[in-house]
Amino acid sequence: MNLLKKTDKPIFISLVLILIFGLLMVFSATYKQDISFFFKQIVWVAISIFIFFLIQFVPMKVFYISSYLLYFLSMLLLVFLKLLNASYVERWIDIGFAYIQPSEFAKLTLILALARYLSNRYRDVNKTNVLFISTLIALLPFTLVFIQPDLGTSLIFLIILIIILYLADVKVTYIIVLMTPLLSVVFSFIPFVWIIYLFVLGYALYLGRMNILNIIKIVFMNIFVGGLSPVLWGLLKEYQKVRILSYLKPHKDIHGFGWNLLQSKIAIGSGGFWGNGFLKGTQKGLDFVPQQHTDFIFSVIGEEFGFFGFVILSVLIFVIVYRTVSVFPLIKSRYSKLLAGAILTVTVLQMLLNISMTIGILPIVGIPLNFISYGGSSLFTSVVMFALLNKIILDRGNYW
Amino acid sequence: MVGENRLLNLSLLLALFFSLITVTLLNLQVFRTDRYRTLSEENCFKKEIVVPVRGSIISSDNAVIATSKRYFSLYGEVSKINMDAGAIGKLSELIAIQPDSINALIKMSRIYDERDVLLKSNLDIATVTFLEENGGMYQGLSIRSHPRRFYPYEYVYSHVLGYVGNITQTEYEKYKQLGYSITDFIGKTGVERSYEKYLKGQNGIKYFETDVYGRVIREIEKKNAVEKINGNDVYVTLNHRMQMYIDTLMTENESGCILLLDAKDGSVISMYSKPSFDPNIFVYGIRRDMWDYLKRNPLSPFLNRCTDGVYPPGSTFKILTTLSGLNEGFIDSQTYFQECNGSIMISNRIFNCWSTHYELDLLEAFKQSCDVYYYQLGMKIGLDKLARYAYLSGFGDAVGIDIYEESNGLVPDTKYLNKKYGRNGWGIGQTANLSIGQGDLLVTPIQMASFLLAILNGGEKIIPHIVDSIIDKQNEVRFRHKKKINGKLVFSNEDMAFIRLCMTEAVNGDKGTGAGAKSSLCSISGKTGTAENSAGIPHAWFVSYFPSDNPEVVCVIVLENSGHGGEMAAPFAKRIAEKWMNMK
């Protein structure tokens, strides 16, 4: 029972319950086709739980020190993956006994690196250089993953950046200004509107009494990003373009990408309030809803456990959020604080993003449901993040 | 630094996002769950319609004149097809399809991941037998059969029985409550249409579990599955031997119709209309060019001339004119009018007779069909009164036979003529024309036959019918015809007896126009008609009944553009009557 003392009960119990729930769902989604999915997932859960406890014995300072190194290593993996390029799917690296997905690890290492970078410069967070370098730190994995291409995960990197800057007390206006290049991405496809937008942006910043050099920097950044985006759009795989465009008319192409969404909605909608019961879903088996064990696992929850299943999942997540938010003010270390805040927000946000994609609130861009979707890398990364969260909450009084 | 408020703010944003998801999920899973449940069922169950066997149609002399035949199709189960080049070559010869096409069919089905491939539909029996005996050579092939309508006598009954064809969208909307499916066949005309609900039976519904591609995995029990019920057999009053005989009679004629009614109860013995079409062509979906050809044909092969064809009745209408005159008391059998000199002047217009008859009494005038006599009689009766008698005798309105294709015909009266020609646009000549069955007057052969039928039955206007009874597969009678009477003729029995005498005389008497129908085997009564029309050569009419003293059959013959009724149509009546006597 020594081990359990290393855990924060509310967080650990919730986590374990979510993991069990996830295993059941993976079983239900795949057992008819191939039971090995389930066994592999069990192995990953076991490994992750082992790492969870291992992490509790590693001093926080070790993570702080190795933040950049881990970031650097994961970037190397991503580059390596790009160079490898031989495998038919570019998201995974075959390491013999399993496939790993470096972009999942990069989510964690980006949080680590940004937390370290910003916690060191907490007085200067509103300085242009700090913002600029933070952005570059996030843009590196963003670009590497975007060209894989994996739109969903690459967007997560931008979300991590925004969340962590916000938590680090960067002025909201600065964050908004930082986001202006995103608007350029959209506008750059209509050159005339884009040029007007650039002038309006510059003038607005001038009225906001920003210094000229910074205005030039920001406008230049917009031009750079905007100029690049049609090129990057061209690099997008056809299926990704179709996915983005299919969001506009999901019912039109019933067997295209809108098909996924429609089938997912049918599965979830047919579940009703109480669901059809465990293993009683009829729409599954990787057939009606493709990728049902990964990105669309929520459709199994929806069909078999209904709205009630969503409520259960929400309660478990809420316990973790409530626990973290209430303990948050007591955390002494800035690094840990940024880490905890970012881990919590990013994890919950990703879950919400995934669910909203399966019910048609957002376009389907391929984001797994943390802890629940089939896939070792995602599960591993999510559990490790919560291991860190658990550790931070336990060690809240310590500086390191 | 690191404001606690900021994490709270972020949490609030997440809570907002969470609420949005909750509302959407509530909508999906609670408020609209029924809709999605239906969609979900449709996803994994396949409903299959089991088509019942359509009831047969059987003639009064027990000939099956419309039935359902098994049509055979050759299917291959894609995953099991295993034929070498030799076998494919043999098969291609057998079913008359190029080996390349067979290979292409199989290949396409593999690409689209289909379970079965239809190699050939409508196999002939010899091929079916051969394939079944040599099944070993052709692994994975199977023959499936399905019932389809079959009309053994092709064009002979196509008007009276009608035909079945693919259900149209509008028909489907109307019939879907009765369990029809969009792939069903439905009666389009004739008996097939008017007795559709008896003939069709009830579609069965089977449920199959399917995979995501809609491929059937297995049949499943489901409470809303329905057993099919085969259609009922319809027994019609038509006499097959007579209909076939009439078909041979009509060989030389391009267009026309012959209608035979039972003189006692109005049941239709024969209903023959020419030109015709083969109703079997609709069974596998008619080819577009064939349809266009049939539709555009100026002789209208789809028209059921017996009930839907409208003609000027010509002199056959003199039956009505005579009865009207007698009824009004303007004439009796002794009445003489101004003698016939081949023509007569009525209000500055000359009206011709077809011959010169000199002085005639009523019987002779009828017998010899003297137009001059009837012009004068018509003028006495007057247009509206004559039109009124026509209406009362069933002209100008459908007789109500049990098929839908029926015309009203047209009886012109003052109101109609004023509308058509203007108040002063027509003259007294219209009255003269009407009295000899010309002008704007149009009647259908069945109206004429029904009129005659009423005369033979003491004035009772019996509605003719085609279907006698309907019997289901358990031998229970589902429908039996009951005699329907649509009022009575206004004429007295003496007058009707007199007109029967006139008709008998017209065939058997000296100088009778119907002499062509005179037979030694059977005494026939009739009236000829030679209907002038815009097409040039007149239509030959002959309306008759036989035997004269105890009528069994009413026979109406119209031969389009053939000439004189006495010359052309009357001999047909004779041959039909003789056939009838022989058949008994």
Automatic annotation (TrEMBL), chain B:
<feature type="modified residue" description="N6-carboxylysine">
    <location>
        <position position="318"/>
    </location>
</feature>
<keyword id="KW-1133">Transmembrane helix</keyword>
<dbReference type="InterPro" id="IPR001460">
    <property type="entry name" value="PCN-bd_Tpept"/>
</dbReference>
<keyword id="KW-0961">Cell wall biogenesis/degradation</keyword>
<protein>
    <recommendedName>
        <fullName>Beta-lactamase</fullName>
        <ecNumber>3.5.2.6</ecNumber>
    </recommendedName>
</protein>
<dbReference type="GO" id="GO:0046677">
    <property type="term" value="P:response to antibiotic"/>
</dbReference>
<keyword id="KW-0645">Protease</keyword>
<dbReference type="Pfam" id="PF00905">
    <property type="entry name" value="Transpeptidase"/>
</dbReference>
<keyword id="KW-0046">Antibiotic resistance</keyword>
<dbReference type="GO" id="GO:0009002">
    <property type="term" value="F:serine-type D-Ala-D-Ala carboxypeptidase activity"/>
</dbReference>
<dbReference type="GO" id="GO:0017001">
    <property type="term" value="P:antibiotic catabolic process"/>
</dbReference>
<dbReference type="GO" id="GO:0071972">
    <property type="term" value="F:peptidoglycan L,D-transpeptidase activity"/>
</dbReference>
<keyword id="KW-0472">Membrane</keyword>
<feature type="domain" description="Penicillin-binding protein dimerisation">
    <location>
        <begin position="51"/>
        <end position="220"/>
    </location>
</feature>
<dbReference type="GO" id="GO:0008658">
    <property type="term" value="F:penicillin binding"/>
</dbReference>
<comment type="similarity">
    <text>Belongs to the class-D beta-lactamase family.</text>
</comment>
<keyword id="KW-1003">Cell membrane</keyword>
<feature type="domain" description="Penicillin-binding protein transpeptidase">
    <location>
        <begin position="256"/>
        <end position="577"/>
    </location>
</feature>
<keyword id="KW-0133">Cell shape</keyword>
<dbReference type="InterPro" id="IPR050515">
    <property type="entry name" value="Beta-lactam/transpept"/>
</dbReference>
<feature type="active site" description="Acyl-ester intermediate">
    <location>
        <position position="315"/>
    </location>
</feature>
<keyword id="KW-0997">Cell inner membrane</keyword>
<feature type="transmembrane region" description="Helical">
    <location>
        <begin position="7"/>
        <end position="28"/>
    </location>
</feature>
<dbReference type="InterPro" id="IPR036138">
    <property type="entry name" value="PBP_dimer_sf"/>
</dbReference>
<dbReference type="InterPro" id="IPR005311">
    <property type="entry name" value="PBP_dimer"/>
</dbReference>
<dbReference type="GO" id="GO:0005886">
    <property type="term" value="C:plasma membrane"/>
</dbReference>
<dbReference type="InterPro" id="IPR017790">
    <property type="entry name" value="Penicillin-binding_protein_2"/>
</dbReference>
<dbReference type="InterPro" id="IPR012338">
    <property type="entry name" value="Beta-lactam/transpept-like"/>
</dbReference>
<keyword id="KW-0573">Peptidoglycan synthesis</keyword>
<keyword id="KW-0732">Signal</keyword>
<dbReference type="GO" id="GO:0006508">
    <property type="term" value="P:proteolysis"/>
</dbReference>
<dbReference type="GO" id="GO:0008360">
    <property type="term" value="P:regulation of cell shape"/>
</dbReference>
<keyword id="KW-0378">Hydrolase</keyword>
<dbReference type="InterPro" id="IPR002137">
    <property type="entry name" value="Beta-lactam_class-D_AS"/>
</dbReference>
<dbReference type="Pfam" id="PF03717">
    <property type="entry name" value="PBP_dimer"/>
</dbReference>
<dbReference type="GO" id="GO:0071555">
    <property type="term" value="P:cell wall organization"/>
</dbReference>
<dbReference type="GO" id="GO:0008800">
    <property type="term" value="F:beta-lactamase activity"/>
</dbReference>
<keyword id="KW-0812">Transmembrane</keyword>
<dbReference type="GO" id="GO:0009252">
    <property type="term" value="P:peptidoglycan biosynthetic process"/>
</dbReference>
